[in-house]
Amino acid sequence: MDQRTPLTARRDEVLDRIVDICLSAGSIEAQTDKYFTNTSRIVKAHGDSEVTFAVFMRRRVVAALEPTIRLINRLVPGARVKRFFNEGDLVPSEMKMMEITGSMAKLSEIETLLLQKTGFPCVSANNAYEMCRAIPSAGFMDMHARHASGAEMNILAAYGAAIGSEAAKRADPKVRGFIGSSQDLTAPLFGADVGMGTMPHALVGYTGGDVLEAMKLFNATIPDAKTLVVLVDYTGEEITDALRCAKWFYEEEELQLKGKTFGIRIDTHGGRFAEGLDYEKSVERVGHWLGVSGEYNIVEQVLGGRAFQLDPGNILVDKVRRILFGKGVSVASIIHARLALDEAGYKDAQIVGSSGFDPQKCQVMGAAKAPLDIVGTGSFLPATLSETYATADIIAYDGVRRVKVGREFLFD
Predict the structure, then answer these.
(1) How far apart are alpha carbons 188 and 195 in whole angstroms?
(2) Residue 11, class by beta-carbon neighbours within 10 Å (0-12 exposed, 13-18 middle, 19+ buried)?
(3) How far is CA 117 from the centre of its chain?
(4) Stated pTM of the model
């Protein structure tokens, strides 16, 4: 009898699609590196060998190995996989993550494919872990889909985010972590039936730039939606539009009495300050929020005294200053919106921040206690493709240990 819950079963179904998508691209021989195919042919012709592959990465990651293991189990059913880290464990750089033992002829043929499925989810998991730990009070929404190359990457990245989120929750019970996805495809990975989200800028543009009209259309057309989050930066009047929409929601329609939740999403363009702010006012807002005077004193408190002193060239300090006080979605803009909503009596209104929320931005936001309820992000995606490269080396042939010089650490 299947003991899985419906959502667990759907999560497994999503992961199994990784292999289906892979196989739909063509034969294994057509997709693998030619030198692996050549190796497979030679070994088949001259006598197969039972080998053990060791798989590792050159940077620290969070183990998200299930896609790789499912691929191996489907393509080489007799292979034996030994894990050295459980799903969600922190894996130090150059530490062996798993060993795969089986036919050299068969495993050589799929080496390219198994490595493709290893690095991307593990790095995504590591980034998601760091982001969730940095802002434990915020829920995270996976919005990476637009930046991916298709369904395979969507699933690998979302799975990594889900594993990183679960690892962060285990490390800190206060972490809310990832609460959903912008896609139905990947929603089950986060324990949801369907994707979440309300409106893009395009819908606001459709109404002539009137976000209140866009919210009214959304509410009328999708009445079952329990959350209404309005995108308030279209005309550059973040505070004006936030208060206008909140007044309609709470006072005119009283939708809170119907069990609905109101929120604003701040996605201010990086070329300008949010309504009512400039650099000096931003410094003042953050300083008052944290009870610190002077922009460099604020940065030192957020960054930490030791890190501040180790940055005499102000490379890191300047990046932190931009996140705190600069244009776009800054800490100051989030505080500014929170205070405006609170002063107008809309303390239950939620604030969603989006735009460039990578691990570094989340660290600064969390350290500055930015009042975020939800973070919409696709920036848990690896910043550079090279950091996702996984490596596999054969370390034993028919039980005899052998590996190229320099990789002897894989024997441990």
Answers:
(1) 9
(2) buried
(3) 17
(4) 0.94
